[in-house]
Here is the input.
Amino acid sequence: VLAGGVGAARLLRGIVRAVEPAGVTAIVNVGDDIELHGLHVSPDLDTVVYTVADAIDPDRGWGLAGETWRAMDALERYGSETWFRLGDADLATHLYRTQRLRAGAPLSAVSADLARAWGLAIAVLPVTDDDLRTIVTVAGEGEIAFQEYFVRRQHAVAVTAVRFEGAERARPAPGVIDALTTADRIVVAPSNPIVSIAPVLAVSEVRDAVIARRRDVTAVSPIVAGAALKGPADRLLRELGHEASAVGVARLYRDIAARIVIDEADAALADDVRAEGLDCTVAPTVMHDVTASVALAEVVLA
Ligand code: FO1
Here is the structure.
């Protein structure tokens, strides 16, 4: 499963209930990663782990349920930057990750240990152990780091370009190519195509491995009735010259996927999607609870 944050995590929560979890590998975006307070934060990796472990805050979709914020409040007193909120228990994850990285462990090894510690049987792999950072160009302003755009600016600014710093040099993390080569199915999760899936595919060996398996690749459209369920995917698609619809998503994925699942609300677009050269399945895709996640997982895997 090629994965970003919330949408991917919710699909994975269904997949682990639909098939044997030990046979599932999540290949996760790291373009959102950020260094804060000297700590390495990997939001999408953590969202996947916390969600599959049923520990995620269900309302926010990120961070841990029942979280407290005493460390953030204390940092505020010192005038530290607190626009990116790290909960007290979540901080332990970043402390642990950072200490392991400083001791020389690759991000993939740390991620595997974190997933195991949370009781996960699935493999959770960063797409790369190398530095890969999503950089966004804001109209009339210039380039800013992804979380500056997403959280600090609440993605309420116009974007003229997105690039993935380090992608040309990035090599797939150990296990990524093997998973893509041997999988029965490859799923492109309903994550943001521009800032969640594109950075995964920006690692050229990953992109080539996915294209080689195109027949076995199923994508799920994150755009439902012309809008993203969460985040700025619809706006980003429009701003960067794409169509903010299931058809626009199909056009972006036609080279890497043979099949796409679109929402019932977009049933009328199915023929236009097929005209882009993909098989199209219409199904409920909004994962408002675990039952819906399992139902979508079953459709995707069928
Ligand atoms: N999203 C926010 O909107 N505000 C935050 O303060 C915030 C903190 C945060 C801390 C840890 C973490 O793992 C995720 C966090 N997120 C926050 C979510 C994150 O910015 C996004 O989910 C992804 O990067 C987009 O997929």
Observations:
- The pocket of FO1 is lined by residues 4-5, 32, 41, 43-44, 46-47, 62-63, 84-86, 90, 147, 150-151 (CB under 6 Å).
